[in-house]
Amino acid sequence: MTESSNLGFSRQDKLVITACGISMLIVQMDWFTLNLAIPVIARHFNVASNDLQWLVSGYMLSIGALMVTAGRLADIFGRRLIIVIGLAIFGIVSLVCGTAPDELYLIIARVVHGVGAALIFPVSIAVVASRLFVAIEGRVRSPLVSLSLFRNVVLLAGAALAFVGAIGLGLFGRPRAPLAVSA
Fold this sequence. Notes:
The chain has 183 residues and is mainly α. It is 85% helix and 0% strand.
């Protein structure tokens, strides 16, 4: 018997958990990178950094306002469909953000970007939690420990990769392409 069969994780469980982890990671990395990129974006659009605070605020407001709705939609229409729609919105709007002609266009796109993130983030956590609880039920004292560990790994990876995105902004000097790639 292999170690993975002892833990109860099938190949499909591993793939689903990995896909959800990557989905959560891109949302985290996008947010962290944006915070680091605001001065570069301000220079690019020739505006003050303070004028771009709505990039972060609009994104976070749309995520916060829609997380519960996204969870409910996942209950009604299925988790997979909602995550796929969220990833599609997130990916398409990432390209829109990367080609924004001015700061107002970018701010509006970031609010819509947050809608995609709101569909991804809470639903991914629910999918991972359901896989962990089914796979390790009765074998681990607290499945929440595994879920917390998973979440912390995703957060740390997102923070670390944000620096990669920031380095890309420093090397290329233009926020458009690195923003789309980092998102």
